[in-house]
Amino acid sequence: MPPTGPPPPLIGALLPRPPPCRSLHVSVQKEVAERILAAPNTRDFGALGVICQALAEGEVIAEAPGSCFWPPPRVTSAMISLRRRPKPLTSDPAALETLTRTLFTKRRKQLGAILGRDRVEAAGVDPARRPESLSVPEIAELARLLGRPECPPHEADGSSPGR
To answer: What architecture is the 8-84 domain classified under in CATH?
Structure first.
């Protein structure tokens, strides 16, 4: 059976909770592997990659074309290895996940518009930057400093930034 199902929720469930394993080896669609391992300032960089990279170091260890499976899917699969970091970049994966989902649902907006200019500046980050320009360690540190942004301050009080 080809690995065409949605494994990111499984990866997202296993990485933050420490089971008795040091690594995960999974087959996913090649496009999903690219998103998990993407670097900042690339089209594929997003919440899934940030969360995985903050908790593990990863690499593609094999690729399998659709012809390797029956019936053959129209996608290429990739096997990736995710090795848990001895010291994860976050001690609160839930806060990191909340922040990254908030940031990357508005990836083309500036950080100050997403999280509130004052909060971002207080964290020592330029509020004019966009989420996709931050490195994984920068996002993890921002999550540590800001906690879980349930609702950005300007949305909670009905005001709007920049007005």
So the answer is: 3-Layer(aba) Sandwich (3.40)
